[in-house]
Amino acid sequence: MPFSRAGLLHLLVVYLVWSSTYLAFKIGLLNGFEPFWMGAARFIPAALLLLLYARWRGWQIHPSRQMLGKLALSGSLLWLGGTGLILVATQYVPSGYVALMIATTPIWAAALEGLLDRKPPSRLLVLGLLTGLLGILALNVPKLSTGTSTNLLAFLLLLISPLMWSSGTILTQRQIANLEPVVVSSYQQLFGGLGFLILSIALGEPWHTPTLLGWASNLYLIVFGSLIAYTSYILAVRLLPLSLVTTYAYVNPVIALLLGWLFLREPLGIWTWVGGALVLLGVGLVFRSRLQPAAQPTL
């Protein structure tokens, strides 16, 4: 089946912009931000700007109480469970490693969709996901050989994070369909940002004054990561199959690894290149599987 050109364009934005957010996370944390304080300082301003834009466009910005509940739950899964755990893990490990661990997102999404639909994925889709997973394992070889406590904590957090993100994405796709994408994006980020703020206060995070570079990285996350890329993500989720949309998690690590090497001198080795090649092959197989007509269920 042909894909929506607009959907593919929005997916390309997600591919390119979200690849760079891992670098921005690391720079912000290295320059004065604490994890949850950084999340609050990003998502609350981004949400308010999106709501102002939606109001200016004349869109409905007062969802029902039931819809607000769904937006709160999906926003918490996506941002507190997904990005929040990433921010904590990024304190201990390189940004490229974080990105490649989040590449398990399509596997979680496919598994959850299969459980919800009671429908097994196609063989080609399974092959694509397994190839991508093999690439992730290859990329992880250097880390697995040095199993320090902080590495293990980051590993566990980065296993849970994509499960939370996949759950929030599926909820968004299936339960939140009658609001403008910008409005959905704004409320989800608002609830996520408020959650970050509450956690930051509850945990007693020191609110240092970030450096100029720290604020610049957060501004980049607000404008490009939240205002532009996340809205594109919501649109892509509506216009394309979820298994296709979540392939961003395969492309992002490869670009993020290169950016980490270029700007932070994070090491690259033979396992990086082998794993990167397998990741891209997995993406191609997932794309190919979505082009095939769905098999008829057997009775």
Automatic annotation (TrEMBL):
It is found in: Membrane. It is a multi-pass membrane protein. The lineage of its organism: Bacteria, Thermotogati, Deinococcota, Deinococci, Thermales. Belongs to the EamA transporter family. It comes from the Bacteria. InterPro entries: AA-Vitamin_Transporters, EamA_dom, EmrE-like. It comes from Meiothermus ruber (strain ATCC 35948 / DSM 1279 / VKM B-1258 / 21) (Thermus ruber). GO terms for cellular component: membrane. This is EamA domain-containing protein. Keywords: Membrane, Transmembrane, Transmembrane helix.
